[in-house]
Design brief:
274 residues; nine-stranded mixed beta sheet; 9 helices; 23% strand
Length: 274
C-alpha cells in the first residue's frame, strides 16, 4: 500500500494492490482518494465507487474533487476506484450475457464489490455507506456495469452516474432480421421488467460525437438514442426527469477520457452538492 501526499492538496491518494479475489480469479487493485488526515477524524465521508480506476488521472477525478471541495460546492468525500480486469467479461448486466457471450463475470464482479470490497473499505476507512449519500459511476461499459449494480442493489446505492454508457448491450446482433430495439437491448428490458426502486437517482452523460452509428436511420447517433430510450423506461417506472433523472449532453463530446474529465465536475456536483 503506498501513499501520495502533497501539503497543497485537500485529498490524499492511497493505493491498495494485489487483493486476490477468488470470485474474479485475479488480484484487484483499488485507488482511494481520501480527505487528507482521514486517519485522525471521527467523521465519516460520503462515498463514491468508480469503475475503471485505471483512468482516474486521465479523467482528473482528484482534480475535480479538489476544486469543488475548495469552492465549497461539495463536502469532503471519499472515492474508491477499482482498476478494471477483463472489462468485456466483468462489466455488463449480471442477469444476462450479450449476444457474443460478453459479461459472463458481471455477476461475480458485482458480488465482489458488494460482499467483499465494500465491507473491507467500511472497516478500514471512515466512509459512510448510507445509501442516501453514496454513489457508483463508470464510463462506457463501466457505466453500464454501474447502472446494473445500482439497480440490483438499491439498498447500497441510491445514486448512479453513467458516462457514455454502453446501453446498446443486446442479446441479438443488429444484423439479425429478428433484431428489435425494444426486445433486445438488455438493460432497457431489465429495467422495464423490474420494480420501482424508491428514492433512486440517475445521471446520464452523452456526447454528440460519442460515435457515428445510427442503426435506425433517424439522424441521431445510437449512444444518444439508447440513453434517451433508457430514460424513457425509467420515466415509465415513475422516475421524474430533472428531479430523479439528470441528462447531460455535451456538444462535440467524444467517447474518451477527455470528455469524461470535462463532465466529472458536473457529476460530482449533482451527486454530492447541496
Amino acid at each position: 500500500m503506498d501513499e501520495e501526499i502533497s501539503k497543497d492538496t485537500i485529498y490524499t491518494v492511497e493505493k491498495i494492490s494485489g487483493i486476490h479475489s477468488k470470485l474474479l480469479n485475479r488480484d484487484v487493485d483499488v485507488e482511494l482518494i481520501l480527505p487528507k488526515g482521514f486517519e485522525n477524524t471521527i467523521d465519516k465521508y460520503p462515498f463514491l465507487l468508480l469503475n475503471d480506476g485505471q483512468d482516474n488521472q486521465k479523467v482528473r477525478v482528484q482534480e475535480a474533487a479538489e476544486t469543488l471541495t475548495r469552492m465549497g460546492v461539495i463536502p469532503q468525500i471519499a472515492i474508491a476506484a477499482v482498476v478494471a480486469g477483463d472489462r468485456l467479461q466483468e462489466y455488463g448486466v449480471a442477469s444476462k450475457v450479450d449476444y457474443k457471450q460478453r459479461g459472463s463475470k458481471a455477476k461475480p464482479y458485482s458480488a465482489y464489490l458488494i460482499d467483499h470490497l465494500l465491507p473491507y473499505l467500511e472497516y478500514r476507512y471512515p466512509i459512510d455507506l448510507n445509501a442516501e449519500t453514496n454513489a457508483i459511476a463508470g464510463y462506457s461499459m463501466g457505466g453500464l456495469s454501474a447502472l446494473d449494480i445500482a439497480w440490483n442493489h438499491p439498498g447500497v446505492f441510491k445514486k448512479v452516474g453513467v458516462f457514455s454508457g454502453s446501453l446498446w448491450w443486446r442479446k441479438r446482433d443488429t444484423k439479425s432480421m429478428f433484431y428489435s430495439d425494444h426486445r433486445d437491448r438488455i438493460m432497457h428490458q431489465h429495467i422495464r421488467n423490474g420494480k420501482f426502486r424508491p428514492d433512486m437517482k440517475f445521471w446520464f452523460q452523452t456526447g454528440t460525437q460519442d460515435e457515428f452509428s445510427d442503426r435506425n436511420g433517424n439522424g441521431i447517433i445510437d449512444s444518444i438514442d439508447d440513453t434517451l430510450d433508457l430514460i424513457a423506461e425509467l420515466t415509465k417506472k415513475g422516475y421524474r426527469p430533472f428531479k430523479d433523472i439528470q441528462y447531460y449532453e455535451m456538444p462535440g463530446g467524444k467517447h474518451d477520457t477527455e470528455t469524461w474529465a470535462e463532465a466529472m465536475p458536473e457529476f460530482l456536483k449533482w451527486s454530492f452538492g447541496a
